[in-house]
Specification:
Distance between the termini: 26 Å
Radius of gyration: 22 Å
Largest sheet: 5 strands, mixed
Structural class: alpha/beta
Number of helices: 3
Length: about 160
């Protein structure tokens, strides 16, 4: 099953991948080459740090490459209506009578400060496929929660 991501989330992963591959890795490789030319590598902190940084970059490139191979970009700006789909911004009333607004995006795009949750989170899974006016129950680590969907919107293309 593919992982879903927004065009913006995909762009960010591609940008990070390209920056690591085309800018950061060549820069660190040049630093390691220079440090190695100075002689004794066992006593050369710049060399050891550079080699460690190259391993970190290569691990991150591997991770990002696998993510890019397994994701499907979903452009939710083409969606309309009041059914919650990937990319929807959902306003709902919680059990305390407060209003919360969250956007449902991919796993790589979660940001609680920006009110972005994953479609595979308990709340995201519970909201998908529901409509404005629906009451929704879902389980959290703190117990069962109930919310009522007030509105569903999608980004404009």
């Amino acid at each position: 099953m593919p992982s879903y991501i927004s065009p913006e989330g995909h762009r960010k992963i591609v940008e990070e991948y390209n920056w690591l591959l085309k800018v950061e890795r060549p820069r660190i490789t040049a630093e390691v080459t220079y440090a190695a030319s100075l002689g004794d590598r066992s006593d050369n902190a710049e060399y050891r740090f550079g080699k460690q940084r190259l391993r970190e970059i290569d691990r991150r490139l591997g991770y990002l490459g696998k993510r890019l191979d397994g994701i499907e970009v979903v452009d939710s700006s083409k969606f309309t209506g009041d059914t919650v789909l990937f990319g929807a911004t959902v306003a709902f009333e919680d059990e305390e009578g407060g209003t919360q607004v969250w956007t449902i995006l991919g796993e790589d795009e979660v940001d609680t400060e920006k009110r972005r949750i994953s479609y595979v989170s308990p709340l995201g899974r519970a909201l998908l496929g529901k409509k404005a006016g629906d009451a929704v129950e879902f389980d959290t680590p703190k117990g069962r929660r109930d919310v009522t969907i007030l509105s569903v919107t999608y980004p404009r293309g």
